[in-house]
């Protein structure tokens, strides 16, 4: 029987969110496919622990098992993920955030892709469920043929959509404490190490997006950390974070919060207000130009492929 481990961390997500994630993982199992769900709770005061234990005991069966561990102190996302990797009993590891969920067949399709392609990591397209707007958005990733050229410019691999070969991730040092770009840092180190990527062009993961979520409330810091991670991996930096020093502009929390309010307002604005806000910050202007540059070189590559092959590439 094939065994897959799914790794999830929890901090203060609601019981409803966590229940939805766990049930979506359980639905991946069958008589030929055993799924272990490793859950690390990085919150010693997590209020829904009792309910979570009851749910776990209810769902566990011969093809599915939840392994729940609670940290005695807050370790942070990267260290909690590394702990989940160490605890997991399978060499095939899938990642899922506690407020996201899987579509049916995700683990089977990713496992088949890893085996068939002899890959170290496989990722998928995703659906963004924007709760506040009550709408869904389909997000296509780029294919693995674009990893070498584009991954160092932009992170297009959704963390919650990946499955990877455990020994490959361990060989590059697992996650480093570079939140909220710890996943991007890992992808770049895998690329630099010559590991193989594969892609399933289906929306097999749904990500919940809320206006008050960390991904939306910390936009400026996310973008700055992603730039730092790109610079760090440009020279194939292998040092531990005891040696690597974060730049000063990632330590000034007051300045970060002020700039984050600006970029959040820019993203939410429409029409002329968006135009004026866009020119109110050098950082926002640079972010817009970075995005335009990325899309321009991608378009240029696609046009060249179309001219050379007589058809458009089908992985974008």
From TrEMBL:
InterPro entries: Glyco_trans_2-like, Glycosyltransf_2, Nucleotide-diphossugar_trans. This is Glycosyltransferase 2-like domain-containing protein. The lineage of its organism: Bacteria, Bacillati, Bacillota, Bacilli, Lactobacillales. Transmembrane segments: none annotated. It comes from the Bacteria. Signal peptide: none annotated. Belongs to the glycosyltransferase 2 family. Pfam families: Glycos_transf_2. It comes from Leuconostoc citreum. One of its GO terms (molecular function) is glycosyltransferase activity. Keywords: Glycosyltransferase, Transferase. Residues 5-142 form the Glycosyltransferase 2-like domain.
């Amino acid at each position: 029987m094939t065994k897959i481990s799914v790794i999830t961390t929890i901090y203060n997500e609601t019981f409803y969110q966590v229940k939805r994630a766990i049930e979506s993982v359980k639905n991946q199992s069958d008589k030929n496919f055993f799924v272990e769900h490793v859950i690390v709770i990085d919150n010693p005061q997590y209020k829904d622990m009792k309910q979570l234990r009851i749910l776990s005991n209810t769902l566990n069966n011969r093809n599915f098992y939840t392994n729940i561990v609670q940290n005695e102190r807050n370790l942070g996302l990267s260290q909690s993920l590394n702990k989940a990797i160490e605890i997991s009993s399978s060499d095939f590891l899938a990642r899922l955030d506690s407020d996201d969920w899987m579509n049916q067949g995700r683990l089977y399709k990713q496992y088949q892709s890893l085996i068939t392609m002899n890959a170290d990591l496989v990722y998928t397209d995703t659906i963004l469920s924007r709760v506040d707007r009550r709408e869904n958005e389909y997000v296509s990733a780029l294919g693995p043929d674009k990893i070498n050229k584009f991954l160092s410019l932009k992170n297009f691999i959704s963390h919650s959509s990946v499955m990877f070969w455990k020994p490959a991730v361990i060989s590059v040092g697992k996650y480093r404490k570079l939140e909220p770009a710890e996943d991007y840092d890992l992808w770049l180190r895998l690329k630099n190490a010559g590991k193989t990527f594969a892609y399933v062009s289906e929306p097999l993961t749904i990500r919940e997006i809320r206006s008050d979520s960390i991904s939306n409330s910390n936009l400026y810091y996310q973008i700055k950390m992603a730039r730092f991670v790109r610079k760090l991996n440009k020279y194939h930096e292998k040092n531990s974070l005891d040696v690597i020093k974060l730049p000063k502009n990632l330590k000034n929390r007051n300045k970060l919060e002020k700039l984050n309010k600006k970029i959040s307002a820019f993203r939410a604005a429409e029409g002329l207000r968006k135009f004026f806000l866009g020119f109110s910050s050098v950082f926002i202007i640079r972010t817009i130009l970075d995005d335009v540059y990325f899309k321009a070189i991608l378009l240029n590559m696609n046009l060249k492929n179309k001219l050379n092959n007589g058809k458009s590439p089908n992985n974008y």
